Target: Adenosylcobinamide amidohydrolase
Amino acid sequence: MAALSISCMGPFLVAEFASPQAMLSWSLTRPGFVTSRKVAWLEVRNADLPLDVDPIALLETKMAEVGHEDAVHLMTSRTVRKHHFAAASFGQANASCLATVGLGNADRVGESPAISMPAGTINRLAHVDRPLSTAALIEAMSIASEARTAAIMDLNWRQNGKPVTGTGTDCIVIAAPDGEKPEQFAGLHTDIGAAIGRAVYDVVRQGGELWIAEQAGSDDGMAVDMLAAETA
Model:
């Protein structure tokens, strides 16, 4: 499994790999298929984004100032020190997920879109230790999305009386080694898909439980805070 180090020095959360990884995301600044060694989060507040500020330009500028211009960039209003990490293995496949989780901007798929303020969102990096084909990267993205929705629905967070299924401004980054002989499949019936699904589910469930506890004014959820960590 590629070494992944996690550093958190607000307002930045950074995941860095020992070697370049193939990545797929809808990042604001580096969307689509890219090769990178880093994924970096920027924590922002409403005051950082008045109507006359371009969020993409802000993200690019802030990342370049600290040497993260080559990373895949994510933006969140969630406090980045309250990030979460989980790993899972099935068969020979090992996966991990790093995420920041907020449900302030939660919504239900197929309903009229609405933006809640302050916005909260779910941004996650899911990594598997096997090279993946283009099709498998896309399939892994669908598994990470499905796992997110399963975790949120199990939290039973509701809006207008119905369980929410996601947030309106979240983002997924799928990463895998940039190597030869890539795996061709990453669906539910594969070890790769099972590992990604479990890691993402656990992280989103954990982060969602903490966020809900905070909304209720409870300090109990703070015990599950995960600060900077390393895995290999």
Q: What stands out?
A: Confidence is low (pLDDT under 50) at residues 219-232.
